[in-house]
Design brief:
Mean pLDDT: 96
CATH architecture: 2-Layer Sandwich
Distance between the termini: 30 Å
Number of strands: 6
Bound molecules: methionine sulfoxide
Radius of gyration: 14 Å
Helix content: 25-40%
Strand content: 25-35%
Shape: globular
CATH superfamily: GAF domain
């Protein structure tokens, strides 16, 4: 099981007082990529009108635009809630950027109640993301939101 309290402390050390949102998202993606096991993609999509656009990430090149309501990312953004997909082959409308991906978690990020980005993690293992991962990553995202918009 991942130690999310250490991960959040490391995040604060990286982003605290840094006034550059893209740099902070890039370092947050790199930290998750470095510290979490069994990932094949870790990064952010950023809201732009009615769609999400690829942001800082680690992993293979990925699809650039995802309309709200489409795929796992667009579904999480539209519902404004985390989506945990145990097996992407069972998720209707899953967008396969890397065919190695077998499970996925997406956590929306909000500012003043509006989604401005989503955190997206993919794994080559079915069932990689548990409710404990969801809870830990939700705290991680709250810490990051505060650093981006103090
Ligand atoms: N699988 C995502 C698309 C983004 S990639 O995983 C990086 C989705 O269905 O929204």
């Amino acid at each position: 099981m991942s130690d999310y309290s250490t991960l959040c402390r490391d995040l604060v050390a990286l982003v605290d007082g840094v006034p550059h949102p893209i740099a902070n998202l890039a370092n947050a993606a790199a930290l998750l990529w470095q510290e979490l096991e069994d990932l094949n993609w870790a990064g952010f999509y950023l809201s732009e009108g009615d769609r999400l656009v690829l942001g800082p990430f680690q992993g293979k090149p990925a699809c650039i635009e995802i309309p709200y309501g489409k795929g796992v990312c667009g579904t999480a953004a539209e519902k404004q809630e985390a989506v945990v997909v145990e097996d992407v082959h069972e998720f209707p409308g899953h967008i396969a950027c890397d065919e190695a991906s077998r499970s996925e978690i997406v956590i929306p990020m909000t500012r003043n109640g509006v989604v401005f980005a989503v955190l997206d993690l993919d794994s080559p293992n079915v069932g990689r993301f548990t409710q404990a991962d969801r809870a830990g990553l939700e705290v991680f995202v709250r810490v990051l939101e505060k650093a981006l918009f103090p």
